[in-house]
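Consider this one:
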Amino acid sequence: MVSLTKLAGFGRGVYGTVSLYIAIYLLGSKDLKLALLLPMGIGTAVGTLLVNLVLKKFSTKKTFILFCIYGASSLSILFLVSKGIGFNSGLIIPFLILNFFCGLQHGNTNVTPNIMIADCVDEIEYKTGKRQEGLAYAGYGLFSKVASAFTKALGPWLLYTWSGYLASTDANVAYATQTDGTLDKILMIYTIIPAFFVVLQAVPIFFYDMVGEKKENITKALVERRENNAKDAD
């Protein structure tokens, strides 16, 4: 289930494909690309700290789902605010601020799945008597690579085919003028489409059950088993 979150949510990373075009066409300058990504990066770092605080009050399952709901909501708000203000210089500050809040969700995917995998390794040991950290993390890594491949295929298709993006045919003009419909779709690739995949990635976690009493019982049983093994070894 944890590995399936990678596949189910592969499209959440397509925003990176259009970050340059967001800076150029929506905010007004290609020089704003770094300024665009920086708040999200800072938000990711802060989000990692927030996840650790949330995990003290909620299970990994609830934490993952809560952050997915938050992530989809923040991306949707960014879309609505951008449409409300319009694509002009007045959008720059609100866009960058909201980008920070959108970045908070990434702390969840950086932390929570790793804790879940560790819990799954405990369950495997409980059932089989063997710890399979290498197998568990290798499987998760494989799903991550497959999801990354899907993302790299989907992003360019959305930008250059679905959005109707027009490449410049003038050697003296780097970026051609785009239609309003294309600009709306570029914004959607940065916000609404990732929001959809953020929700989708939470679906497998509804079937994840290594939480609560089950987790506590397995942890307790493993501790007792190791203590008994240590006594037998002596």
The chain has a mean pLDDT of 92. Residues 2-223 form a domain with the Growth Hormone; Chain: A; fold (CATH 1.20.1250.20). The chain has one domain: 2-223. DSSP finds ten helices and no strands in the chain.
